[in-house]
């Protein structure tokens, strides 16, 4: 998958992010930070984020972008780059 969504339980912004991706039909992998210690370390130590969701996106041209929080404009840009239409 080209997009990984790092989440935590009962995260409203995570649910909103999933909803946008699902409506657009964009495939993604979900990783629960509360149960995956390696993923938690990656997000906090390597990427430097302290809140969920964290989106890690690899674009068709190989470019990697990542961000934290519900970011509709960034999601729309990713969906468009992947050849879909954002919801």
UniProtKB/TrEMBL annotation:
<dbReference type="Pfam" id="PF00462">
    <property type="entry name" value="Glutaredoxin"/>
</dbReference>
<dbReference type="InterPro" id="IPR002109">
    <property type="entry name" value="Glutaredoxin"/>
</dbReference>
<protein>
    <recommendedName>
        <fullName>Glutaredoxin domain-containing protein</fullName>
    </recommendedName>
</protein>
<dbReference type="InterPro" id="IPR036249">
    <property type="entry name" value="Thioredoxin-like_sf"/>
</dbReference>
<feature type="domain" description="Glutaredoxin">
    <location>
        <begin position="4"/>
        <end position="56"/>
    </location>
</feature>
């Amino acid at each position: 998958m080209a997009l990984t969504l790092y989440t935590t339980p009962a995260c409203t912004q995570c649910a909103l992010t999933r909803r946008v991706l699902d409506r657009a039909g964009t495939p993604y992998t979900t990783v629960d930070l509360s149960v995956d210690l390696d993923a938690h370390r990656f997000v906090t130590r390597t990427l430097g984020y302290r809140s969920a969701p964290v989106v890690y996106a690899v674009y068709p041209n190989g470019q990697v972008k990542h961000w934290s929080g519900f970011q509709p404009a960034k999601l729309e840009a990713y969906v468009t780059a992947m050849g879909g239409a954002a919801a």
